[in-house]
Amino acid sequence: MNNRILNNIKKDFVIEFRNKTAISISVAFAVITTLSISLVSGATPLSPMVHSIIFWIILFFSAMSGLAHTFIREEEEKTSLFLSLHCTPEEIYLSKLIFNTALFLSIAVIVTPLYLFFLQVLPVYLPLFCFITLSGAVAIASVATIFGAMVSKAGSGSSLFTIISFPILLPVLWTTITVTAISIEGTAVKQYRDIVFLLAFSGVIVLTSYLSFRFIWKET
Rounded to whole angstroms, how far apart are CA atoms 107 and 113? Predict the structure, then answer.
């Protein structure tokens, strides 16, 4: 990893933690939604599948605003040209991918304990729960990075980001929801092969995005 990639990652983290826009919005959404569901459900027990669906809905929408903002901020602050002059498109993509993955994992680290505590959920297969959350976060971040670049260059803002990325993320969400329910319930076979699928999915998306990012960044 060269110095330009490291400097871009450092710059994004400095800006993010100075403004705290993505983290603040994501944490606020997660806390409000989790508390609301906890209060509404009361003592009513929820099935593992319902818990899994709610958990990933909260995690997904908590992270979307922050992941979209990475590229959109470059266009809004007119720094994309400066970035292009000092870095290759491949370096820009890798730095944004690493930042988005780290940002999503940071949000997951905050959201997951909140949900487990307030909804009083204890996964039976805790390692499987952690692995599926990690691999799901990487898959979502890999898709969000390339679509964030497309949306920013199209000048559509973050309003279109979730809509266009959702169909591509359906297999990821379906897999993560199913395996998370299994990890909570603990009555079925541990689905570690689905983690391999998510990692392979992420690899394909990253490779395709890496090869096509130059044309998205330069031509759109």
Answer: 11
pLDDT in tens, 65-124: 667 677 777 766 677 677 777 778 888 888 889 988 888 888 888 888 888 888 888 888
141, 67 contact by CB (below 8 A): yes
Rounded to two decimals, the pTM is 0.86
Torsion angles phi and psi, residue 123, rounded to 5: -60, 135
Cα gap 181→189, rounded to integer Å: 12
Contact indicator for 29, 112 with CB cutoff of 8 Å: no
What is the CB neighbour count within 10 angstroms for residue 49?
A: 15
Q: Convert the chain into a string of H (helix), E (strand) and C (coil).
A: CCHHHHHHHHHHHHHHHHHCHHHHHHHHHHHHHHHHHHHHHCCCCCCHHHHHHHHHHHHHHHHHHHHHHHHHHHHHCCCHHHHHHHCCHHHHHHHHHHHHHHHHHHHHHHHHHHHHHHCCCCCCCHHHHHHHHHHHHHHHHHHHHHHHHHHHHHCCHHHCHHHHHHHHHHHHHHHHHHHHHHHHHCCCCCCHHHHHHHHHHHHHHHHHHHHHHHHHHHHC
Q: How many other CB atoms are found less than 10 A from the CB of residue 101?
A: 21
Distances (CA, A) of 52 to 79, 101, 128, 145, 191: 39, 21, 13, 24, 15
